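Please review this one:
***
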Amino acid sequence: MALERELKYSSPEGTVPALADILAVLGPLGAGATELGATTHVDVYFDDARRAVQRAGLALRVRTTGARRVATLKGRGSVVDGVHERDELEVTLPPEPAAATGGEAPQSTGGAPAEWPSEFGAHLPGVELRALTPRMIITTERHRFTIVQDGAPVAELAFDEVACQPAAEAALSYLVDEVLFHEVELEALSAGGRPPVSAEALARYGAALQELLPLYPSDITKLERAATLLAAFEE
């Protein structure tokens, strides 16, 4: 597994600042930024009826972005002042079959892959991968920027509008169809063989961004936040 390091904020206003404003607050740190634009991805999280994946301290998802699908297994890791550090294993999956009409790949069927990557089994002893079913669907509209320091990309800055739904297999347990929230993430990048930028550097960028809009460090993941919000409406 590879190390993922990211600083998460709750963003009550859900504002996406202009690039010029981001450049203005990063400038005193000797950093710059480039705008990457908006994208949408759908994350389907899987578990079994015993919640074996969750009890193992892991999260298993399939992310669909257009025709690209990636299966990811993440550990719980550690969290300090909103900085999440955890191991993750990512494997690209074959694209879903083209839609019957129009010939374009669907956003996501919500189903499990025909076969889970064999690498995942070693990290999920005792879990029957074929028994996993969708439990949560999280759709994220993401506006991305790259933060650059000393000519190298060091972090991805993402402003996320998040919609969370229980999967069809679990929907009857809830009184609402979905919950919504906004987050801001700063994810450390490894460029040119360099190690990921430090948690301290992410915190400096985050503090600069807090000059633009209210941001509050978040010690929980999107999945944990979605589960907590939906729990208030669980029958």
User: Anything to note?
Assistant: The chain has a mean pLDDT of 89. The two ends are 37 Å apart (CA to CA).
